[in-house]
Design a protein that fits this description.
1 helix, single chain, disordered N terminus, Immunoglobulin-like
Length: 119
């Protein structure tokens, strides 16, 4: 009985400890993330930090809707870059490890342009 209680206590303590641990976070921002359709295309700023994962380098791929992703930046685990004014609604930036594992993804969205006829 005493062994069983000891094992149960040890297991419970381990579970509580693991539950309290936070996994390292990937920091990834697209700014602006939402724009008016009146202002397209736009330049966006991209910031990332994957150092908490122990990575030394990262890769960013970009694509507009209907286009194949292409490598935009390969560099340090932390950084900031700005695109030219070529981002449209649905523009997506994907943050990957150098071995191709997807870490995060952000997509630019738009709000309607008042008075613009869409049809």
């Amino acid at each position: 009985m005493r062994k069983r209680f000891s094992l149960l206590l040890t297991t419970s303590t381990m579970m509580a400890t693991l539950a309290g641990c936070q996994r390292p976070q990937v920091q990834f921002e697209l700014e602006p993330a939402v724009v008016s359709a009146c202002n397209l295309p736009v330049a966006v700023r991209v910031r990332w930090n994957v150092g908490a994962l122990g990575l030394k380098r990262a890769r960013l791929e970009v694509n507009n809707l209907g286009r194949q992703p292409k490598v935009w930046v390969e560099g340090a685990s932390r950084g900031e870059e700005r695109t030219g004014a070529w981002a449209h609604d649905g523009f997506t930036v994907t943050l990957k490890s150098m071995n191709g594992v997807e870490l995060a993804k952000r997509t630019l969205t738009t709000t309607p342009c008042p008075g613009k006829n869409w049809l």
